[in-house]
Design brief:
Layout lengths: L2 E6 L6 E5 L4 H10 L6 E5 L5 H13 L2 E5 L2 E5 L7 E2 L1 H6 L7 H8 L1 E5 L12 H9 L3 E5 L2 E5 L7 E3 L5 H12 L4 E5 L5 H12 L3 E3 L6 E4 L7 E4 L4 H13 L3 E5 L7 H10 L2 E4 L4 E5 L9 E2 L11 H9 L4 E5 L8 H8 L3 E5 L2 E5 L8 E3 L3 H13 L2 E6 L2 H6 L3 H7 L3 E5 L12
Parallel strand pairs: 2-15, 3-14, 6-7, 10-11, 18-19, 22-23
Antiparallel strand pairs: 1-23, 1-24, 3-5, 4-5, 7-9, 8-9, 11-13, 12-13, 15-17, 16-17, 19-21, 20-21
The protein binds uridine-diphosphate-N-acetylglucosamine (UD1).
Uridine-diphosphate-N-acetylglucosamine (UD1) binds next to helix 1, helix 5 and helix 6.
């Protein structure tokens, strides 16, 4: 198991510049969309993270060929050789479910493992299934797999009971090749959904209402080649914004889309940070000496992202008073609170709420990363926890953050990757 160790002799004040990578949550649907055509799809600004590798492995199993040079990727699914997304890949990355819609639309059959449980609570895919059934797919659940079949999907009207990001993406991709018009209501508004729609339009799809809750898709017979740049990762950007606010630092973030960061920008500003645009694709975040407490409720975009909840919690441990974070998207997404408590934070979980009493000094310890964003939260905590903080099981972090330790080293942080941390808390000394 790999670990990250942060050495904090005196609390850091992060200063300098950091370049934000392409969005993990935008590249995964874009890669899945390549299954919709036999032509080449060219993607740039690819983040080199583990989830991209997992998706490429899955697409290669399905018959796609790709070449990745630096951050540019050309992928082509001339022939689909298999219609099966096996459990070991889906288990490693839930977003594998994104191949369901495209495979079904292109091949007429898709067999995708059910993702099952996950560290941040129950995450059903029922809306993906009912949506595809509405488009005429026959779907059975057999031996832990979703088996979906349709000679050709037919356009229909479908309203999502609840906003779902990958659910919307799956349905848009399927509808792009369906016969006739599909109207999807209550679609997720996340920028990653719009970015996928823009790629599909470049491929020849006919989609109206991009960026709105109702999407109208007029199906076409074929899609063609396209080139597309992956949008900046707003969660990675948000993580560095919190890092600046938390450490009273002064950071310039390059290659960001400020409009995508509004909900977090608002909260950080009220907490005392100064956030300025510094060029079209850059922002500057200047932390203040006093962090004010803030209540936060997670919500679908444009609300406060659940993927920033854990990182914001660290900030609130250093605020001068009590704050309440309410998690409305996922149940059981507070595992990081226990780890923060081990570092000295005062956090009480009451159902979907976390009550954080600040300001408590944090001191370094061994902690365990339980999911992707929880890992990021523990890295942030390490920046203000005195002494050594060792974050175990950082495989989660590698799924979504590109070279995070290299980026932090450039900002003056003493951090190292331990290849085999045997002093793991569960197996080592108490
Ligand atoms: C995506 C993001 C993830 C983010 C999440 C919420 C990707 C690859 N992942 O995940 O980083 O945390 O959005 O912003 O883009 N739901 C159902 N039935 C369904 C589908 C979803 O009840 O069929 C529920 C979920 O349990 C959850 C809510 O809808 O309560 C939102 O989930 P969803 O937007 O689908 O999350 P993902 O697309 O899996």
């Amino acid at each position: 198991m790999e670990a990250l160790r942060i050495y904090t002799e005196k609390p850091y004040q992060l200063r300098g510049e950091v370049t934000i990578s392409g969005a993990k949550n935008a590249v995964l649907p874009a890669l899945a969309a390549s299954l919709l055509t036999g032509e080449e799809v060219h993607l740039t600004n690819i983040p080199l993270v583990k989830d991209v590798q997992t998706m490429l492995t899955l697409l290669a199993e399905l018959g796609a060929e790709y070449s990745l040079k630096k951050k540019s990727l050309t992928i082509s699914a001339k022939k689909i050789l298999s219609d099966q997304a096996p459990y070991q890949l889906v288990r490693a990355m839930r977003a594998s479910i994104l191949v369901l819609g495209p495979l079904l639309a292109r091949k007429g059959r898709a067999v995708v493992a059910l993702p099952g449980g996950c560290a941040i609570g129950t995450r059903p895919v029922d809306l993906h299934i009912t949506g595809l059934q509405k488009l005429g797919a026959e779907i059975k659940i057999e031996h832990g797999y979703i088996v979906a079949e349709a000679r050709r999907l037919k356009g229909a009207e479908f309203e999502f009971e609840k906003k779902t990001v990958t659910g919307t993406e799956n349905l848009v991709m399927a509808a792009a090749l369906a016969r006739g018009e599909t109207v999807l209501k209550n679609c997720a508004l996340e920028p990653e959904v719009s970015s996928l729609c823009e790629l599909l339009v470049k491929m020849g799809a006919r989609i109206d209402g991009i960026g709105e809750e109702t999407l109208r898709i007029r199906g076409v017979d074929d899609l063609g080649p396209a080139s597309h740049r992956i949008i900046p990762d707003r969660i990675e950007a948000g993580t560095f914004m919190v890092a600046a606010a938390l450490t009273g630092g002064d950071l310039v973030l390059r290659e960001v889309e400020p409009a995508h960061l509004q909900a977090l920008t608002d909260k950080l500003t009220i907490s005392g940070a100064r956030i300025e645009k510094s060029g079209r694709r850059s922002i500057r975040v200047i932390g203040s000496q006093e962090i004010k407490p803030q209540d936060v409720t997670t919500a679908p975009y444009p609300g406060f992202p659940t993927d920033m909840q854990a990182q914001f919690m660290v900030l609130m441990t250093q605020a001068s008073g009590t704050s309440i974070i309410t998690e409305t998207i996922f149940d059981r997404r507070f595992a990081h609170a226990n780890e923060l408590t081990r570092l000295g934070a005062s956090i009480e979980i009451q159902g979907d709420k976390a009550v954080i009493r600040g300001r408590t000094p944090l001191s370094g310890a061994e902690v365990m990363a339980t999911d992707l964003r929880a890992s990021a939260c523990l890295v942030l905590a390490g920046l203000v926890a005195t002494g050594q903080t060792t974050i175990n099981d950082i495989e989660h972090l590698d799924r979504g953050y590109e070279k995070i330790e290299e980026k932090l080293v450039k900002l003056g942080v003493k951090i190292e990757r331990l290849k085999n941390n045997n002093n793991h808390r569960t197996g080592g000394k108490p």
